[in-house]
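Name: M42 family peptidase
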Amino acid sequence: MKYIQLLEDLSNAYGAPGFEDDVVAVVKANKGDFTLQEDAMKNLYLNFAELDPNKPTLMLDSHMDEVGFMVQAIDENGLLLMQALGGWTAASAQSQAFMVRTKDMSYVPAVATSKPIHFMSAAERQKPVALEDLKLDIGATSREEVINDFGIEVGQPVVPATKFYVNERNGMMMGKAFDNRLGVAATLAVFNELGPDAVKALPFNLVGAFATQEEVGLRGAKVTTNRVNPQAAIVFEGTPSDDYAKSATLGQGRVKQGPQLRYRDSTYIASDHFNAMIVAASEKAGIHIQKAVRDGGGTNAGSIHTGHNGVPVATLGMPTRYAHTHYLISAYQDFQDTVDLTVAFLKDLTAEDFAFTELKTL
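Structure predicted for M42 family peptidase:
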């Protein structure tokens, strides 16, 4: 498990949407000999400084943020009211441990409130808890204590308090933010596997774009796409696994069954031509992939594919159980297969293969 330490460092990093600074630091520490640039939104660009205007450009996309919350208000009892940053359910957040950032950039632990069963009526016990009913308790007793002693103010980010774990026997990983630190790690691993000399020798520019604020509307990818102006893109994602929710016949993203190649979700329809190229590469490399047509959800492909004059995008997902919760489970083998497939695909890609992205006269 060559990249397990990288995956651990990325998973443990705190990075609510708009507050991805810890993730930026991990990417910077693992950029190797490639150039890395940061824009005003904290989006990162790997190898972008080496862009050759005479070559087409392929962008490897991933997003650095994770689902979290923001402190919206502080009540008189010292409890924190929360505003969700990304998709949460109350059932996933209630009674769970979180970390809240202070104004000096440190983090303090908190727990999402839960009314004890002793104080609940029979009707309350049957009623689902709403997300807006939850507050965070850091162990304070007044609003003044929260502000003056803990240094927590309105607008501070909140993230799950979960530590990474790997089962060495079967290669299963458990941690937070696999959506989408798996993708961030995949981009870094692909560049590392190729190396600076091989990347420079490619007949196209290869740029790694690490986007921010995906969980709140694919915002960072709008900026990275405009800046990079790619002719094609591959999106890496930690996609929801359905092996615990659907039968083997209907499942399209099962753990340990290889990368998930997406054909449709609520934000885009994939390029059939580009997807066919990925399928051909998987067959040549002997790497099993899973084909998925999703009813809902979305990735940065939703922003990228309509950028500039239209961008063919392939989405490779690494199946992840229990997405948008504190504890996600994923297989290291699916991560490695995604990296290996992408490296094999890029090595065989030619400048002529980008011809299908050009405007054609009929």
